[in-house]
Design goal:
This protein is mainly β and 92 residues long. The chain contains one helix and five strands. The protein has a domain of 63 residues. The protein has a three-stranded antiparallel beta sheet with strand order 2-1-5, with no helix packed on it. It has a two-stranded antiparallel sheet with strand order 3-4.
């Protein structure tokens, strides 16, 4: 049997992940409001819904649509940050 121990993960932990023992992976997103020069202003908490589509066979591998409640931001822009796994945002 091949030893799957890797980077501090035990053989059984790696095997469980490869076999999706706990189900599909968890993906989270957060949203930042940026000024016209892409400087961080604040984190947005007004996201009402979202959808991410992923296709390994498409030219564009991943697309996303989000509905954000409108606010009175005139010259700012939005940035979306994705997280895969169980890390906390402060760890990114």
């Amino acid at each position: 049997m091949i030893d799957l121990t890797k980077d501090g993960f035990l053989h059984q932990q790696v095997k469980d992940m490869l076999h999706a023992k706990t189900g599909s992976r968890e993906v989270r997103f957060r949203y930042h409001l940026l000024d016209i020069e892409d400087n961080f202003i604040t984190e947005l908490t007004t996201v009402e819904s979202g959808e991410v589509k992923q296709s390994a066979f498409s030219d564009i591998k991943r697309t996303a649509n989000f509905t954000v409640r409108e606010a009175s931001y005139l010259q700012e822009s939005y940035a979306t940050w994705g997280d895969v796994g169980a890390k906390k945002w402060s760890e990114l």
